[in-house]
Amino acid sequence: MLASAPPWLGLVVLVLGIALVASSVDTLETGLASLVTAERPATTLLGARIATVVLLAPAVAVALQGYSVLRLFLIADLLCAATVVPAVASLWPRATTAGALAGAVAGLLGTVVPGLLAGGDLGAALAAATSRGAVPTLPPFAGALIVSAVTTVLVSLAGREVTDLHALGARVAALPGGTR
Hints:
This protein is mainly α.
């Protein structure tokens, strides 16, 4: 695409790409440090920095493997598809922790079910769900969404536990200087 463009344009695109990545990583690091200090108010700045480095270590390890960025995004999107319904269902008063966890795990398994039904073994189903060459890619996403939704609802209804959101809200402490 840049082959017919002037060389200086390639340099501009490269600099902008690096700036975008650096900005995203900076935001991630800031968010992690903020989360650590919010959850553990006694954490020092050094402790938050150490926690951030420890939390970023798996991302650095994956980055050093040289995996395809598109495949990593596909895997991340599949993980999101498998867990979005249980996360949103937690707003439902009858949702239970067991239902959300079971739904998330079932959603992850649901990504490979279409590959298993197509006659492949587990390894081939995993490769098909996370490979760019797996056309169409809709079945793994549909499997994740449908299986996680059905499992979350069924396990939550089987638990018959109702969450009182008002009582739960009353137990949450207000921030200093804030209003409730």
